[in-house]
Amino acid sequence: MPQVTSDSREYCVELADRLGAMPGARQESVRRLVEDGMRLCDNGHPRTGVAKLRRAIRAAQAPEPR
């Protein structure tokens, strides 16, 4: 069944929490995306913040460069 999401501050926090458990979350580029995404969510721009957080999840799932 498809997951229904909303563009809300709570969803931003959920995505950030999910990212915290990923091995690639420690990469500098991923951390910057998370910081930017959460800042956007905190400043009333959850749709753009969620997009950044989703990009961070994709980056964290990619294999780390050696």
TrEMBL record:
The name this protein goes by in its record: Uncharacterized protein
Organism this protein belongs to: Roseomonas alba
